């Protein structure tokens, strides 16, 4: 692909298959001004690390908030204040406030909690996949990945899955992601705001319940977390709402996207699938397989920063207050960091060095839980489903209209029940 400077990530052809565009960016214009999005796309690993490890120069807080709701923030805020219990932004913040928030939220993701969830996650996955095995067909996103992660996150949060359901969580997720995805119209914003009001009112009700009666769940952990010796030792009510809302969405969408990507790889690479079937009980192989898929097909493709001063990056001058998008999915293929970057290689010496979960102080707080959940889901899928195949040509697969994530809308499959 030869770039002429007019290409934009908004283009539906690029949205559904962005990797040729990413390769062209890395090779030709590693810091590229996207006129359609009015921001700079950064595609090489080293440049991405420069941004991620300098939160003072490259602000996460401004990167998220300055263009929240894609130019409709005042109207969006009015609707949320009127019908949703308040306009409460995502907690994408810079230090020093970030340091306090991080200490509080990390208390919900201890190694003990993650390990204690593994058996239950395997039970949920098995219970979902087993009834599909005899049927011989399913949608990998709508029937497996999305309901699996929705049920898991509901249990973790202490929400009633029968009351909420996978479809409602999918609607909530799409509405929230649209506010940072840079692609929604005003009409779409109005509908998304209505949906987010419903989500936020639900979250507020659950928080009030846990205030009165704590339970063994993530919401209770968050609202009762304390940091000793801090002037503000607990999350404020607004911070609780934002954090619970964020964990619900992030814990569902990105993990579902990752699981669907694993299913897609298994359905389109029979030789790899056969190798994994033969090594199903090798925890090391399964862990490395998941890590490589997370590098090659990360659920989050790009997140934002704002340059707080005039800077030069990759030989390009970026004016102060310009928006930047770190393309994790492009950086993960950079051959300067990952030789033969497009090849799935289970024995890579730097396995785990990808930017899939970010880097620096804003690295994903739930990374260990996400890795475990994806690995367990992959194992249960391989254990029960054989001869996975796409039911449509791969070119017909489409993705949600957002730059932030790369989430399949559908994944039609055929398969057989595994008997050996």
Plain-language structure description:
- This protein is α+β, with helices and mostly antiparallel strands and about 425 residues long.
- It has a domain at about 70-300 and about 360-415: Cytochrome P450 (Cytochrome p450, Orthogonal Bundle).
- About 55% of the residues lie in helices and about 10% in strands.
- It has 16 helices and 10 strands.
- The protein has a 5-stranded mixed β-sheet, sandwiched between helices.
- A hairpin with a 4-residue loop joins strand 1 (about 30-35) and strand 2 (about 40).
- Helix 5 runs parallel beside helix 10, helix 9 (about 160-180) packs across helix 10 and helix 9 (about 160-180) packs across helix 12 (about 235-270).
- It is globular and about 55 Å long.
- About 45% of the residues are buried.
Low-confidence stretches: none
Q: Going across the major beta sheet, what is the strand order?
A: 1-2-8-5-3
Q: For the terminal residues, how far apart are their CA atoms?
A: 44 Å
Helical proportion, percent range: 40-55%
Secondary structure tally: strands = 10
Query: For the report, how would you describe the main beta sheet?
Result: 5 strands, mixed
Q: What is the averaged pLDDT score?
A: 92
- Roughly what fraction of the amino acids lie in strands? 5-15%
User: What's the CATH class label of the domain at 70-300 and 360-417?
Assistant: Mainly Alpha
CATH fourth-tier homologous superfamily of the domain at 70-300 and 360-417: Cytochrome P450
> What is the SS-derived class?
alpha+beta
């Amino acid at each position: 692909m030869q770039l002429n400077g007019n290409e934009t990530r908004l283009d539906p052809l690029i949205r559904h298959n962005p990797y040729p565009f990413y390769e062209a960016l890395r090779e030709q214009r590693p810091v590229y001004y996207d006129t359609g999005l009015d921001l700079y796309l950064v595609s090489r690993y080293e440049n991405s690390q420069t941004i991620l490890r300098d939160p003072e120069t490259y602000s996460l807080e401004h990167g998220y908030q300055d263009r929240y709701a894609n130019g409709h923030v005042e109207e969006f805020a009015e609707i949320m204040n009127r019908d949703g219990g308040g306009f409460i932004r995502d907690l994408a913040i810079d230090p020093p406030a970030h340091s306090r928030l991080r200490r509080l939220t990390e208390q919900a993701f201890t190694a003990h909690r993650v390990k204690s969830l593994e058996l239950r996650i395997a039970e949920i996955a098995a219970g979902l996949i087993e009834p599909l095995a005899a049927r011989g067909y399913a949608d990998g996103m709508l029937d497996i990945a999305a309901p699996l992660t929705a049920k898991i996150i509901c249990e973790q949060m202490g929400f009633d899955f029968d009351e909420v359901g996978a479809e409602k969580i999918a609607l909530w997720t799409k509405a929230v992601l649209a506010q940072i995805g840079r692609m929604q119209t005003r009409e779409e914003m109005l509908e998304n705001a209505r949906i987010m009001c419903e989500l936020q009112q639900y979250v507020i009700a659950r928080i009030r319940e846990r205030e009165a009666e704590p339970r063994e769940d993530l919401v209770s952990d968050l609202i009762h977390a304390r940091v000793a010796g801090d002037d503000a030792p607990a999350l404020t009510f607004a911070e609780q709402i934002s954090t619970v809302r964020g964990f619900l969405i992030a814990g569902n969408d990105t993990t579902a996207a990752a699981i669907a990507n694993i299913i897609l790889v298994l359905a389109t690479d029979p030789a790899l699938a056969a190798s994994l079937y033969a090594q199903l009980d090798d925890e090391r192989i399964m862990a490395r397989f998941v890590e490589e898929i997370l590098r090659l097909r990360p659920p989050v493709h790009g997140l934002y920063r704002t340059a707080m001063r005039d800077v030069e990056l990759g030989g390009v001058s970026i004016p102060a207050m310009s928006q930047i998008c770190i393309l994790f999915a492009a950086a993960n293929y950079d051959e300067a960091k990952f030789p033969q970057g497009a090849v799935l290689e289970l024995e890579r010496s730097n396995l785990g060095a990808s930017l899939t979960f970010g880097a620096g102080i804003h690295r994903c707080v739930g990374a260990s839980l996400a890795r475990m959940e994806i690995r367990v889901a992959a194992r249960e899928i391989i254990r029960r489903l054989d001869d996975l195949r796409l039911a449509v040509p791969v070119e017909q697969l489409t993705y949600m209209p957002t730059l932030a994530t790369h989430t399949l809308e559908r994944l039609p499959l055929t398969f057989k029940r595994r008997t050996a």
